[in-house]
Amino acid sequence: MVMAASSSGNTMEREIPWKERVEGWKTSVRHGHLPRAESYNSGSSFRHKPDFINDQTSGELSQPLSLKISVGGIKIHSYRIFIVIRLILVGLFFHMRITEPVKDAYGLWFAAVICEILLGVSWILDQLPKWSPVNRKTYLDRLSSRYEKEGEDYCGLANVDFFVSTEDPMTEPPLMTSNAILSVLAVDYPAEKVSCYVSDDGSAMVTFECLSETAEFARRWVPFCKEFNIEPRAPEAYFSQKIDYLKEKVKPSFIKKRRQMKREYEEFKVGMNALVAKRQKAPEDGWMMQDGRPWPGNNPRNHPAMIQVFLGRTGSLDIRGKELPLLVYVSREKKPGDELFYGYAPAPVIENPSQSWWPWLWKFSKKRDRENPDTVSPENPDTISPEILRAPADTESFEYEYESETTHLLGPVKSLEKTLGQSPVFIISTLMEDGGIPDTTDAASLIKEAIHVITCTYEEDSQWGKEIGWIYGSVTDHVVTGLKLHARGWRSIYCVPSSPAFKGIGPMNLADSLRQLLHWALGSMEILLSKHCPLWYSLRSAKLEWLQRIAYINMVVYPLASIPLIAYCFLPAVCLLTGKFIISP
């Protein structure tokens, strides 16, 4: 099923034609001058700079976007001395325990020593990555001067995708998801450069309806945030603040508009809660849409692919007549027996009538709100870079030919199908300088390709989940993906703004906490027992630094620490029952 907003089919003009892009790739492959991954992910630049930057002589343009600041001498040295002292004491303790066995309780003593050593190793693995901490200072105000030129429409800022995933509206309140989406749509970033995809793994009709209400409320909330520089930009978090909201607000219209917006948000909350209450129990025949047809996602385990464009380049404008970021509802196709990879398949790269495949993508939880509206840059740890989404550098040379009027790339399509999947339009979009689609592609074919990309079998016979995109094989696939990125030479740059970039909620009860811990532990064990285990993965490559490897090892082996911990808890009881002790008198 396809549910798509109307489109005029307008396509943004691009500075570098896609044919020249392919010519450049072909020449680079032929002469072996492919750029290294680091050049795309520098801490001081984006992947692509507009040509006009090269002509600038201003000192401000040469300044970096971020700087690495070492932790102060007294602070770091005191911390290291404390760690060394503890390490010496632990070593002396182990020496005493090993050299003074308990002969009349050798079994208990041996079990205790093994548990203590394992727990000690776990502590060391946790401390080593913290040996050389660094801070980073970011200069977001330099982005505009570097990537935008006064008097020109061209903007060199990178395009950004936000990917919000949700599944069960009963356990994940739609109001919480809506607040996360609203905080994304209101970020301080060019609207035409921002896209928000909502992935509904539960194919719930209430999620779809609530998203429709959210899109309508966003038309009023987004301009309110940007007009008065509201922070935080999730309405629930903003209106629940216990602060003087009149402080530093000089516009006389602010008080009136704030009261009006708060009233509208309360009405929005009432409507959302009413929708959820109405959809608590599904009827026997399933949910019906307004046009009388059955909801395609009535069976969450067997339903077609669904797409709906709510906001976007050709969709609704805000109340001031300005453009809003793209907002798309996506529910992947599911069939019995098919292996599903919730949320992280090619869904974020869907083609639609207004845009396609952005260079930077954020994995975004429905339980987190964007607290700082300025932190939208490739230097954030939650982003996935374009290089892992593109074809590997050793892909066979691009042999292509142009069709006279359709401007399709035949060669790259054929050579990249085994890598990117069998979607010609998507493959061509990866060859565009900043993503995008050929100008001659019509909306109907884009919708068809979008449905094809989000089918449950699209990854078959391709490199999706293996070398491209989020890597499958673990419920904590973000860890595997990060490991592969670092093993390929990518660097992580942690964006630390003055105010928190994100704020969210954790588990509210013991059952949820245990469920979350079990989820993480199972994911770590899956990685530990897989070919991506950091103990041996990419050992021949020098790109993964040894402290990074230790950090990943600690991340995947920490669940094993529960075994010696539990055993050590039982040892005192055994000692009391047997009258023997694990320590010599």
From TrEMBL:
InterPro entries: Cellulose_synth
Binding site for UDP-alpha-D-glucose: 165, 172, 201
A GO BP entry: cellulose biosynthetic process
Major place of residence: membrane
Transmembrane parts of this sequence: 77-94, 106-125, 557-583
GO MF term set: cellulose synthase (UDP-forming) activity
A GO CC term assigned to this protein in UniProt: endomembrane system
Subcellular location field: Endomembrane system
Keyword Transferase found: yes
UniProtKB keywords: Cell wall biogenesis/degradation, Glycosyltransferase, Membrane, Transferase, Transmembrane, Transmembrane helix
Organism domain of life: Eukaryota
Protein's name according to its UniProt entry: Cellulose synthase
Taxonomic lineage from the root: Eukaryota, Viridiplantae, Streptophyta, Embryophyta, Tracheophyta
